[in-house]
Amino acid sequence: MKLYEYNAKNIFKKGGIPVGEGYIAKNPEEAQEAASKIKKPVALKSQVLVGGRGKAGGIKFAETPKEALNVSKALFSTKLKGETVETILVEEKIKIKKEYYLSVIMDRTNRKPLIMASKEGGVDIEELAEKNPERIVKYHLNPLDEFLPYQAREIAIKMGVENPLVSKMGSIIWMLYGVFNKYDATLAEINPLVLTEDSILAADAKLDVDDDALYKHRELRELEEYKKEEFAYVKLDGDIAVIGNGAGLTLSSMDMLKLYGGEPAVFLDIGGGASQENIEKALNLVISDGDVKVVFLNVLGGITRADDVARGIVNVQNASKRKVSLVIRLTGTNEEEGQRILTEAGVSFETSMESAARKAVELCME
Amino acid sequence: MIILDENTKCIVQGVTGKQGSFHTKQMLDYETKIMAGTSPGKGGQKFGSINIYNSIEEARKQLNINASIIFVPAPFAKDAAFEAISQLDLVVIITEHIPVHDSAQIVEYARRNDTIVVGPNTPGIISPGVGKLGIMPTHIFDAGNIGIVSRSGTLTYEVAYQITRAGMGQSTCLGIGGDPIVGLDFSDVLSMFEEDDDTDAAVLIGEIGGNAEERVAEFIENNISKPVVAYIAGTTAPPGKRMGHAGAIIEGETGTAESKINAFKEAGVDVANSPSEIVELINKSF
Q1: Can you give the pLDDT at residue B108?
Q2: Is B245 a catalytic residue?
Q3: What pLDDT score was predicted for residue A71?
Q4: Closest by alpha carbon to A306, among B139, B33, B245?
Q5: With pLDDT > 90 as the criterion, what percentage of chain B qualifies?
Q6: Which one-letter DSSP state was computed for residue A225?
Q7: Looking at the partner chain, which of B99, B104, B236 has a beta carbon nearest the beta carbon of A212?
Q8: Class of domain B136-285
Q9: Distance between A16 CA and the closest CA of chain B, angstroms
């Protein structure tokens, strides 16, 4: 789950990381009010989850509350890379002396958390990573060992920050790792971390939390970003819904469909061990989609049981009002029972994925 | 065969749960050496013919056990894995949705203890005719000389099934797990196939997301002399969409099917366009 900047900043602040004074605005009037409270020129920052917000025009400045009202009107009516702006974070406009980059990610290649830090932060960090990777300090952490403040200061020293900043930078790195760890994050990033005349603070904040760890974090489940996804569901442009058990098999089913000239309308992975109710929900979900002409259901049961799947199919077939062609490939654990249930209900099925994919494409062309 | 052979004696952690009990019965039916199960608080009870213990330590006082398979729910899986890693040589973690921070700790703890971890989020491992520590349906496998290693669950079954129907069989078939962080990786398993007398060729099944396939491609070029056929699921997936579990996220330059297929081709590895083409390419490689 990706967090909006303002929620990430609240969490960073609780973790001891300095952030600027800011207020949330849900409409232009609230933005104006926020600017009046701050009593200084402000930055109006669109709260969206897409990357490259600044370059896409999602951050504007205003000298007065009146200007904040007008500027935020424009922001609320734009879309940033397809995402509507529903919230604006109003902050004091800061005078930047220097920008740094700090992040912690879960590095799947080395299977360890990785801290990255650079004294050349800002919007061009990706370019820097490509052209001068040596200017980004990389430090892997052992997930079983404690990360101590002196290690964080060593990173600050390697970054090349000036002496008076070593302790401060070290403590921010140490606290950022603390947030990363406490909230089961897969990414915690500050870009830029800004040095002003009299302070150092996180001008932006990114926090991605592991969906599988949300059960541990009640406060995160109350955020507006939290939407419980039962299935991995992706809407596509074609007319055949592809439902499978497991990402690999579902992806491969989609590839086969395309190979035979079909176009997927939906990618839906029911995952492992789906119950009869899950199957019914999945089928009803795609059948209710008007773009779907044919449903290609490919189940090769391991932990998923073919008899549960068959019962779900029969129930949906009997109850659904909208009739779409159903091409079923059902095999694997408890397949005799599953296939018997389908046969008794008069539902035909395939046993090979190739023949099922071909049949789905043929039916769609009729 | 690799990892799972006639000397593997296993305990089931979470034997009384819904998945644990169902699949323990399946593993016993396949004549796998399942020696016992654990379920804290239910020690002294029986599950079919095997005894249930409160802990692995308790079981090991009575029985010779060197492996574990874990079915306990995600919030308790790290605890179960540490218990097993500290005492056994092989731990297969079937549980899915384990927090990635927990998995990182599990994998590091296994490295320190020199224990093999398969998974998490894996269908497990099967050496046809010898046994299975996993959740795969058994009738689609047959003993033979093809080793299969895969990041996917069900797609592995699909490929094994096609190989079996073509009259061939498998030495060992292993799912490394679909999560971003897993124990054994592609190169570990291919190295074992390389050393294994029962394996004459290997099939590698990957999918979009991550860079495990790109990394192993180079490894194969330098270290594996037996024929390897690769297949990548997700060639038609639109970029930037989350297609399934954490493993299948397209990220940056690496991660796309194209990047993976190119890496294999550059390393001289045959790449199949569909599961059925895998069989043709294996036949050609001999």
Answers
A1: 98
A2: yes
A3: 95
A4: B139
A5: 85
A6: T
A7: B99
A8: alpha beta
A9: 22
